[in-house]
## 1
Amino acid sequence: MQRTQEPDQGQGSRPTRSKRWKAILWIVGGCMVAILGMLVYDMIIKGDEYAAQAYDNQLRPIDNEAFRGTILDRNGNILAQSIEMRQVVADPTELKAGKVPPEEAALQLHQVLGGDVMEYTEKLSRDGKYVLLEKCIDLDTAARVEALDLPGVYTVFTTQREYPYGGVGAQILGGVNGEGVGNGGLEYYYNDLLAPSTKVEYVEYGLKGIPFIGGTVANVSQEKGGNLVCTIDIEMQAWIEDFAQRTMEERQAEKVSIMVLDADTGEIYATCSTPLCPREGGWREATPDEQTLATVASAYDPGSMFKPIVATAAIDSGAMTEDKYFTIPPSLKVYDRTITDSHPHGTLEYTLSQIIEHSSNIGTVLVARTIGDETVAMYATRFGFGQDAGTDFGYVSDGLLKDYTEWAPVDSANIPFGQGMTCSVLQIARAYAVFANGGTLVTPHFMLLNTKVDGPYDWPSDRIISIDTAERLQLVLRRVVTRGTASLAAVGDYPVAGKTGTAQYAEEGSGGYYSDRYIYGFAGFIVGGDPNFVVVITIKNPQRGAETATPDFSEVMTYVTERYYVKVTD
């Protein structure tokens, strides 16, 4: 009997399974090709870029603990230095991870630091990873903060600028801002010298933020800022400031300015102008007016202190000697203006020397007319008026001296006796140093030495008049004190030479001058002095005392000669 064979169900499903496996293999293969393609792209095409990014993610900068340089006076006394301090910072996320409530941490910090609990709480409750809690604390307080062992609260290195003499010399030294950058005085001018290096050390970190052993990849050495030795004698500076303050109060003056300059070198030993920076708060607590060193930064009409420049022009140019006679009338008419002398007189016969001795405005104008505007202007420029003095300070006034081709007849009459032009106390001191040192124009300066320059800096100087002319002017200025208008400027038995100055000062906004307000000044030196100091003092609008600065000069120069045992050489 023949049987009918049933179809094999298993055999009948094999083609379906085969197709399914092929599809899976194709999918897997395609994925593998895609993955391989991505690997090729990442490792070969983009490999360098990704490697650099990964490497950068492992690097964290560490600020070097470098100090700003120190400023010292000429005798080695520290005037400004940076001391090690600490900042208190926190990572609120670490505090939260440590399960310490911000309020509790804030209270503990308050007990050590004394700050505001609410402010600490607010900062520690933030979402960010960094907050500054205290900007500057001492090391003992920092140790107490660390002893709290609060998670995420750290103390980090910082420095604080310290001025051991408080506000003494603050107008010269200036100060630094919150980032430790100079923002006034020598701190500003010499910031590049004093500032520490800004180099950064990079350290390689692992996945959990743990530094690799030996993982430093850029070990740049720390470099503190350079040190500056300045020309200032801080003890003299303190005395000068006390004297200026006392004089301002006793004379009820608006401002008193003083400068002591070495005529041979241009080194400024002391200078100040009232109002002064507070002795306790110094530069940080001072107003802009208190911070301003007016002896350098402000200009005013020099008055009769300019007259010796006209006499120098007449003698040095060969136009005349100091013995030449002039007929001095009671007054001199210049267009609609009448020029007179400080005291009424009839017609006089004065030599050039006597014109300076008695400070005759009329006589000085007659001398200037004889030699001409061009010669007067040429010598004024030689002496540094209207010019940059090259002084190492943040702001130095050049004063104002118009080109002689622009002088009106009134200017030709006014400028010879120091009106219609302006200059600083610094420029007056520099000019009188020419007389004191035998004819050389020096550069007034504050920097004596610094650690980034090998040896003393060679400050520019230039002979501008002959030795003979300088010696003749010394005799003329000596007679101003011995038999002229400045007898009160005498200093014991020393041969003092110098010149008084009385000038109206400009009325703000009007273009004119106050008729009843004056600046009294005196510039002088010891003839043949060793050391060879020039002292300039100006007193603005005093309400009490003599209408002169000569006795004040005498007191300052007496102190200077005693402090430095000034001798007189031939």
Note: The two ends are 161 Å apart (CA to CA).
## 2
Amino acid sequence: MRARFVRLTWRELYGAAAAWHNPRCVSVLSGGHSVTVHRRRTMREIMRLLLLLVVAASLVMALGAQSPTFESGDPGALSVKVVKVRRCEETQRKASHYGCLVSVEVHNRGDLLAEPTVFEVVAKKDRAGRSLEPVRVKRFAGSLHGRAGRAIEAGARLRYTFFCPSDLPKRGVKASVARASFFRGACQPELTMRVRNVEHEKFTYGNVTPQILDLTRCEVTNPLAHPVDAAFRVVLEKPYSGRALLLVHLEPNETKRWEIQEQSYSNRAFLLGPRARKFELVDWSVHRDDGRGIAAKAFRDVWRRWRRWSDHEAKVSGRFEYEYTEVPGPRSHRKEPRRLRVQGAFTITGERSVDVQPSASIEESDAGRIEWGLARAFDPLRRPPADEVATADSMFLVQSGDPVVLGFRGRGWDWRSANDGSEMQATLSIRDGAIVASGYLDGLTPPHRWHTRQQGDGFVVTGIDMPNHRLRFDFEERGGRLLPISYFEAHDIEGVISSRTQLTIFDVEVTGAAQPSAVDAGPAATELRSAWDACYRYPDGSVTLRGRFHAENKGRNEHAWLGVNRVKGAVTISGFDGRRYRGAEVEIRQKIDAGKRKQVEFMVMDRFRIWSGRDFCARPSFDDAFAGATVSKAPDDAGVFRIENGPYFEVVVRDGRIVELVYDGGTRRKIGYTKVGAHVVPTSLRTGRETVTAKFQAFRGWLIPVEFRFDKVFGEDWGPETLKLTKLKVE
């Protein structure tokens, strides 16, 4: 049988002792419990009883102060029953805009204390019969890790209420727990938090077209020594008549003068100008552990594996070729696309001081775009050390598991950001030792998706997809240093590309940098050099490719291809030297909606970049790739070469050919070959479950890839996709 303790305050105990002289008896009330003390007992007995009560109260307080121990758990152990779905507005107008309040009952079938942090709501259709997509809803914005507030004991049930931005039907709605905090120890089963001094005022919103809107001002206090997120269900009079859920964050023991001008929900819904009354506390969550140590270690590990220059402030110079295309919008006075091509030289000094000398006169805005592109192309490599970017005190753990999500206070991981972090908190998502996404904790900004690839003993960033904005990077090893060779940027409006920039970088010199020593000349290095040079490598120089293309996907990537599964047309690639090219023109020659044309053209060239970024025929010379490295043979396998201070951890050689590259993080890339004429050509690359293959054809002393197949490049359910070049001319 579980013991039950009664908590008495010192004031209540003192009142019990002082009331000893009252006739008959004394009743002490605390938390709904009654302790009756009879007058006939002696003072010694009374003092003994009071001492026991004090000990019991102290024990309860000590138990409540225990820090929870967070563990991994299975959200599937939390079953959810939807109890009630209620539209926020009572007027029934604009229902799909304001959404619904959803009440659910969660049953904890596991053996750990559990607090749901993210729910997924599913309904086939809304009240008007329109199809609905599943919606993920965070109970509160901010970190998901370290929550130990309204938790559910093992085998128990608890109800939660949250806001969903969809116009859900009353029946047929299902919900599940997508994320939860699991722990052992103590939670906060009850919380008393009242809203006081509610006032209403008017305020001016907006500068261009100002509006007079309502503001609700009140006062609320956090009685706990930990940060608390609280949800109050209120009755709204404006901007609509009905109910709403208002969220507030309070620091430990904080009394906040809460001015509610607007409400931003973590699932991107927005409420402006609320006039609220009847505040009722319906949910809360206590943040007990920010996971600072875990976050700091994860950040330093991923920052170490992200390839960078040790001399990140070194002076850089080189040459560039810039191509810019701007497509006029529907309201533009210009009807034809604007195109600009220019060459020139550049110099980068300090952290980000870029000086551009174009070969022809260009507009100031174009010079600014070139400077911006050059800075972005070098930024991933010219990063400062981790300690200069973020300290342990500025980081916290948002989410453990897969992926790990880190939060940053202040400027955070983005060392270029001008934001001081007073309002927005940045995040990084990490999976398999590499960055996969970045974003903000406000929940209103869609996350930025990162694309990376293994490069030497770490990884490089090859692309970042943002809302209406995409970046692509390409790098190569030269002279023992990783250098950017191209930068691509595209802007789109509702899926239609409005502008794109292609920047090609060459003849790069780093002034004052220490030159790496030559590769050692031992017998192992000589044997590895022979295998490195045994298969085909592109010759020096560059060529122009002109021909037709045919691209096809199996329908699993329709969101990127905008539903176009097959496309054909003409393509011209100038300045191709294997890894990079200085310009590309794609012309679709079939009926495709004008709004989709630019996006599909972009997708065609992006698939060509997927291969060229991995193409083993474009590898540098042995001396450039292994400058400063020490090569030795593994004692247990004559075909395995161990590399120290080089681009790989191991290189596996069979029958005189390199068949596998093993990177420092453990990633393995297997290489397959095909005989093309007199050459042995690497045509198959398998990295993990990702597979890319190509077929080559001879043209005027060059072997050119003319047919590509891509499988599982961006996940298990991605692809396959194919790209074929036909009627190709090499100039």
Note: DSSP finds ten helices and 41 strands in the chain.
